[in-house]
Known about the structure:
- The chain contains seven helices and 18 strands.
- The chain is α+β, with helices and mostly antiparallel strands.
- The strands form three sheets. Strands 1, 2, 3, 4, 5, 6, 7 and 8 form an eight-stranded mixed beta sheet that branches. The chain has a five-stranded mixed beta barrel with strand order 9-10-16-13-12, surrounded by five helices.
Amino acid sequence: MNTRDPNRADSTTSSPFLFSTPAGYAIDGVTVRSTVRLPIPELNLNDVPPDVVIGIDYADDALPLNADPTIQVSGGSLIFNWAPMGTCTVSNGTHIDILSSPNTAQETWTDVILNDAMAVLLNQRGALVLHASAVAVDGQAVIFAAESGFGKSTTAAALSRRGHPVLSDDKAALVVDPASQRVMIYPNAPRLKLLPESYRAVGGDEAGAQPVYDGSQKFAFAEAESANTSEPLPVAAIYILRYGETNTVEPLSAGEIIVQLSAHAYITHLCDSYNTPLSVVQPYMQRDFAFLARSLPHLNVRRLIRRRGLDQLPELAQFIEADVRAMPLKP
């Protein structure tokens, strides 16, 4: 299929979401050069080669219709096929290449890049990427993992309202500090995405509410406290969210930690979303297991059983604060 450069002078696909000259960014601890405009602060790379390059090409005509979104793995690449919207190829932990239908809105691709594509790329680079949200409490990261609908982003928003900076939303990439062997997380681009009822419950400004992208049912929670740092933070705790009659915490055994974090790995979430067998992404799962095997002694994973109801959020936030502050500090 023929493609064209969207920044060419005679191109009909020029967009405020594209750069004529690539821009630099820092995302999840890696430097990025991208021709797609991302909704995060730019970084002057000073001619230093980036860790990651993001590029986009446009098809001359609409891509053929694909019945369902699919994932394919070929060598060091994972390909998302969203035809007729386009395809996104993530390769070797260094490249994200998009082939877009001419009619696909660019803000759609920015969300794909910051979440699904970056999650795959970080896995390729050896990180354990969880389907989770995270905040900072007293200089340490607190992570909330759960299936969709259990309130990961809403819990993070409730803590943000109490002054705790948001580190990530939907995607939390864990790395190991080589000196201390502690598990760390780099702050990424925290755009908390909340359903309208959750947005109202945490005091979002409904008059100025903006959807995450055109057609999205979720609002971007602009009131979230930002971390304002690109430095990694040590992970104090990972909470697996569940509902119950009262707010309580249960520690998990080593075996339960492996089962739960594997279930909440971002690659598992992607397979669920794209109706893809886990066998297709076996190399990615193997990297996750290897990370867990190395890091298990340094992981503090707990089951957080919480009361239902958005009116319970203030009490839940205070409960989490108290639990984190009662944990012994690690060097």
